[in-house]
Amino acid sequence: MKELSVLGSTGSIGTQTIELIREFGIHPCALTTNRNARLLEEQAREFHPELVVAFDENAAKDLKIRLADTNVRVESGMQGLVSAASMPQAECVLTAVVGMVGLLPTLAAIDAGKDIALANKETLVCAGELVTERAKRANVKLLPVDSEHSAIFQSLRGGAEREVKKLLLTASGGPFFGKTKEELKHVTLEQALRHPNWSMGSKITVDSASLMNKGLEFIEAMWLFGVTPDQIEVVVHRESIIHSMVEFCDGAVIAQLGTPDMKLPIAYALNFPNRVPFEGKPLDFSKISQMTFAQPDLDAFPCLRYAMQAARTGKTAGAVLNGANEVAVALFLEKKIGFTQIGESVGSAMETIALKAHPTLESVLDADRAAREHIYSIFGVRPEKG
User: Fold this and answer.
1) Which helix (H) or strand (E) holds 342?
2) What is the pLDDT, as a whole number, of residue 281?
3) What Rg value do the Cα atoms of the chain yield, rounded?
4) Less packed terminus of the chain by CB within 10 Å, N or C?
């Protein structure tokens, strides 16, 4: 690969991608951020992309001033993201933006014939049927970047599609594994942001604490790999050494193991179908004393249960689930609601909002808006930053 567009280049996945493209000699033709103009300026001055985008209008104005002495084009908002996703010279678009905001740029990239290195799971959660059908028509690859989906993607190379019996999606269990529903009522934001194994952005870290992240991955896996919800099992694996597994029809289980390092799945997606050496963190088996496995507690962590329900329901349930969760997590991050209220409010949205079959882009966006408004109405507040 020579040219890559990176959506979300200043976030956790984005900055690790920047390190890898520096090592691989890939040129980023477009880079984007939400509002981190300072870091995006640094990246622009190093790599000289044709386009940079700040989704936030004020950050874009700041960025234009910062880059006034360069020939780098600066855009903003959703149109800017769509432009970055559609760059003619880009061979692939890595989508590492967080949330529903990734849907329209991903569709634009597909329509432009770009392969997608997908780190934005919400795109498939909200509009899996729409996105996968459009990618198939355009003959575009959807290359998973999430560590769990990358592990399944790699393990699937050990057998034919017809031989797959089950996907085993591993979960660390987050910082609150083993806590009861009652105990979770008293946990704090600071505790929720202390993930035992991974260093991630605040939204995905809270999702990992509530197990919603695993629920979103459950739905994403269904669409990525063309399996039914009954062919996916979530297994808590506290050590985060096995990143996920595939069970085949003869009982054989193939797994991908590694240290908790997102550079490996990013590198695999960027170089697929080849493996390219890079300075990663090797797994030292002599230091692994044990690997444990357990079933998730769906009573204490209802977000995972609601996600599984959305997967089985289909229609626009994924958009409702995700929209409600995005708003609830934003409110929790601002300490306006408690941790268990995330799951409670998501459940309320799932029970209340009418669903539409055969989702279109319009019905997905409508479901997302309805879910967000439902959460606002429950608590009577809105996130300070939208």
Assistant:
1) helix 339-352
2) 80
3) 20
4) C
Q: Which tokens belong to 173?
A: 């269990």
Cα(240)–Cα(357) distance, rounded to whole angstroms? 37
What pLDDT, on a 0 to 100 scale, did the predictor assign at position 337? 96
Residue 290's CB is within 10 A of a number of other CB atoms, namely 7
Instruction: Output the six-digit token pair for 174.
Output: 């987050």
Peptide bond into 88 cis (omega under 30): no
pLDDT tens string 41-57: 999 999 999 999 999 99
Which residue's entry shows tokens 């009861």? 180
Give the tokens for residue 16. Answer: 């690790």
> What integer pLDDT is reported at residue 385 of this predicted model?
63
Contacts of 302 (CB under 8 A, 6+ apart): 343, 344, 346, 347
Read off the amino acid at residue 94. L
Residue type, 25: G
Burial degree of 277 (CB within 10 A; 0-12, 13-18, 19+): exposed
The pTM for the full model equals 0.94
- Contact (CB, 8 A) for 81 and 53: yes
Closest listed residue to residue 74, CA positions, set 90, 56, 89:
56
Both tokens assigned to 159: 């057998």
Residue 238, both tokens: 């506290």
The answer to whether 218 and 351 are in contact (CB under 8 A) is no
Backbone angles phi, psi at 74, to 5 degrees: -115, 130
Neighbours of 72 (CB within 10 A): 21
Divide the 386 residues of the chain into consecutive groups of 10 and give the mean pLDDT of each group.
95 95 96 97 98 97 97 98 98 95 97 97 95 97 97 96 97 94 95 78 92 97 97 96 97 95 94 88 90 97 98 97 97 96 98 96 97 96 73
Element (H, E) at 329: helix 317-333
Q: Is 113 left (phi over 0), alpha (psi -120 to 50) or beta?
A: left
